[in-house]
Amino acid sequence: MRIAAAADVARDLRARIGAPSPHLALILGSGLGALADEIEASVRIPFGEIPGFRVAQVAGHQGALVAGRLEGVDVLALAGRVHMYEGWTAQDATFPVRVVHALGARTLFVSNAAGAMNPLLQPGDLMAIGDHINLMWTNPLVGGVVDGDERFPDMSEPYDRELRAELHAAALDAGIPLADGVYAGLMGPSYETPAEVRMLQRLGADAVGMSTVPEVIVARTLGMRVAGVSFITNAASGSTGAPLSHAEVLEVTARAGGRFRALVRRWIARIG
Predict the structure, then answer these.
(1) Angle at Cα 267 formed by Cα 264 and Cα 271, nearest 5°?
(2) Which of 39, 59, 185, 227 has the fewest beta carbons closer than 10 A?
(3) How far apart are CA 9 and CA 235, in angstroms?
(4) Which residue segment(s) compose the domain that 88 sits in?
(5) CB-CB contact of 62 with 46 (8 Å)
(6) What is the pLDDT of residue 244?
(7) What is the dihedral angle through the alpha carbons of 262, 61, 89, 148, rounded to the nearest 10 degrees?
């Protein structure tokens, strides 16, 4: 599947969705897909039925595109994502972003489960992403320039400051604590060593995960505005002496995911 085929895929999806073109798309990370279940008048299409989409194989990722209305706003939700550590390329992992853009979305909300680098962050906390560090050692724009892309896109403001301010305002309205920080994206799938955690802290990272960065790069290249939240699910390796596990990630998102959903819904209502 050629990346340039996103418009063709979007044309077919539009016929199946049968709804107005949504201006907002959501990517719901590990254990956070329950928000997609709250979308009203929804149409759900498994990734496996969409040409060019890879099937999500990681626990906590539903693997479906859900279209409908949330807080009175037409939205598209990617309930789950695929990761490069599953063997996919950066282009595979970001193809859904190109498709939701072709469907009309001009704002992208990204979310992920992340480990805390900043000692002030604890499991269950939410962090608005203000910037990121790409340590995945690849870039989804490598290769020929796709029609509509820039060769050297500006990344001086990957996360829109106005949208982030609305996230903080929504959090204040809802009485939900919301930190602000820098997300480091690593390839995975192994968790970081204590030495790598110390390195990332020195680089200025507040949280670390294995996704999001390639999606944001493509979204900004397409001219989309981006906002993002990291759900802190664990303290980074070496912080507590306890081993890390994906089961812990899913347990924390299940236990405290209601605050995440409340924050995103309040934010959507604010931005309309």
Answers:
(1) 140
(2) 59
(3) 40
(4) 3-271
(5) no
(6) 58
(7) -40
pLDDT in tens, 93-150: 999 999 999 999 999 999 999 999 999 999 999 999 999 999 999 999 999 998 888 8
**CATH at residue 87:** 3.40.50.1580
Residues 146 and 3: their CA atoms lie apart, in Å, by 7
Tens of each residue's pLDDT in the chain, 272 residues? 445 489 999 999 999 998 777 999 999 987 788 899 999 999 999 999 999 999 877 655 578 999 999 999 999 999 989 999 999 999 999 999 999 999 999 999 999 999 999 999 999 999 999 999 999 999 999 999 988 888 999 999 999 999 999 999 999 999 999 999 999 999 999 989 999 999 999 999 999 999 999 999 999 999 999 999 999 988 876 555 566 566 666 676 677 789 999 999 999 999 98
Two tokens at 75?
């939205």
Q: Does the model's pTM come out above 0.85?
A: yes
Sequence-ordered alpha helix ranges (H) in 124-208: 161-174, 194-203
Is residue 126 within 8 A of residue 178, CB to CB? The reply is yes
Classified as helix, coil or strand, 43 is: strand
- Closest to 255 in 3D by CA, of 122, 126, 125, 124: 124
Active site residues: 30, 61, 83, 85-86, 113, 210-211, 234, 246
User: Where are the strands (E) in 80-153, listed by range?
Assistant: 107-116, 126-135
Number of domains in the chain: 1
Alpha-carbon distances, residue 251 vs 49, 123, 124 (angstroms): 29, 10, 10
What is the spatial distance between Cα 120 and Cα 179, in angstroms, rounded to a whole number? Answer: 9
